[in-house]
Design brief:
4 helices, rod-shaped, 119 residues, alpha+beta
């Protein structure tokens, strides 16, 4: 009976090491677990065009998109290096014959012009 208790205890003790394939499984779960850290992304994009010496900001609602969908399109265009194409298509949808279209990227304290298109 005593051998059976010891064998079952050892089996239950080694079972997590069999199912979890990391070297230190108890660091991930339980008393030694690190808190989950999420990085807040401060990256924002903006498209604007010049009209009568003033810059007009485009938010997407002007042509039927929500702000979040338009932000996703701008982020996708940035990471696929298609900023000029997005500016051209936005200008066509807006039907605005203006001098300059620009796309900006803001990340925390920095701002960078990442694209420019002139019709």
């Amino acid at each position: 009976m005593k051998k059976m208790v010891i064998i079952s205890f050892l089996c239950l003790l080694t079972l997590p090491f069999i199912f979890i394939k990391t070297f230190f499984p108890f660091y991930r779960f339980g008393m030694f677990a690190e808190p989950v850290k999420t990085e807040i992304q401060l990256e924002k994009f903006q498209i604007r065009y010049q009209q009568n010496q003033a810059w007009v900001r485009i938010e997407g609602i002007e042509f039927g998109l929500s702000k979040s969908v338009f932000a996703t399109l701008m982020r996708k265009a940035y990471y696929q290096h298609q900023e000029v194409e997005l500016l051209r298509k936005t200008a066509l949808v807006m039907k605005a014959a203006t001098a300059t279209w620009e796309m900006w990227r803001y990340d925390g304290q920095d701002s960078t012009k990442i694209g420019e298109w002139q019709p």
